[in-house]
Request: fold
Amino acid sequence: MDTLATLQAYWWLLIAVLGAALVFLLFVQGGQSMLYCKSTDAERQLMVNSLGRKWEFTYTTLVVFGGAFFAAFPLFYSTSFGGAYWLWMLILLSFVIQAFSYEFRRRKGNIYGTRFYDFLLLCNGFFGCTLLGVAVGVFFFGGDFIVTKTNLLDVSAPVISLWAPTHGLEAIACWKNLLLGITVFFLARTMGALYFINNIGGDGGFTARMRRKTLVNGLIFAVLFVAFTVVLLCTAGLRENEAGVFVKEPNIYLHNLLGMWWCAVIFLLGVVAVLAGIFGSAFSKTWRGGIWVAGFGVAAVIVVLFCIAGYGHTAYMPSNLDPQSSLSISNSSSSLFTLKVMSWVSVLVPFVLAYIWIVWRKMNSAPLTEEELEKDSHVY
Reply:
């Protein structure tokens, strides 16, 4: 493998790790979707303040995820973010309303009341998770676009990627993408319940209710995930041959999973960890660490899904209109020089992760309770 191919694989792995972190952090959105689930005003305030300490992590990771694509795979960035902009605008809108909901929910002079902003948080919880799942589904099931690099020479319309007139909305109508989106939503709800068990103190009715929600949402997620996995492994994809031509291959993701044995092992370990976190938390009356066990499993599975989507000369974003316009990590990456420079920048990633971990530990030095909420200087 030459230097360029090595750096392309390296950056795809970094993006996979960022994607895994983003999906894990969607527990914030999952928790927001449960604000109206038979919660008292005091419990709802605890839930909002608990999530309010973490929501910036999700938002920041989403931005970094997009920035990594811009740096390493600019053709994807221009094709997806610049072409399927209605889908991405809906995603960003759902996160924007989340941001000002936490900011204005309890601000003096709020004429709408806290319930209005709780409803906006709930909308972010559902639409943010589901639409992100739909966007990732395009990685596997394709989008309606055509890439014509010679368009850059057209002064009147220098657009390298032409998308269908619906500009990404058609992805929402694809049942396979929606299946992944709903799967991500119930995963986020499961992780949200696990987070509340870990972060909010007390062994009373609230914690018991969150353990039941972990079981219910976890079972729904498990069924949906099995369905998505079967659909994915039976899906035909495109593989780039030595001549740079994309050729259709049946069951391509199954072949990739079996061909990279380490991916299959990590995938199985991840699934076991997720199930252990769900059922361990649901049936134990004292264990609070399920979020970390399940979180490790979620991260492992997401990394594997990215690997089988991009490695092995697979088109990680197939074109449903023109197969030869499909994107792979080799034909959509930055130049060798750019990848080298950005690789030095990526050395800072462990320090950023360490900073996040330190801040997280500081925030979670003790489980949040109603007594501590009353003493908190910032109540969302």
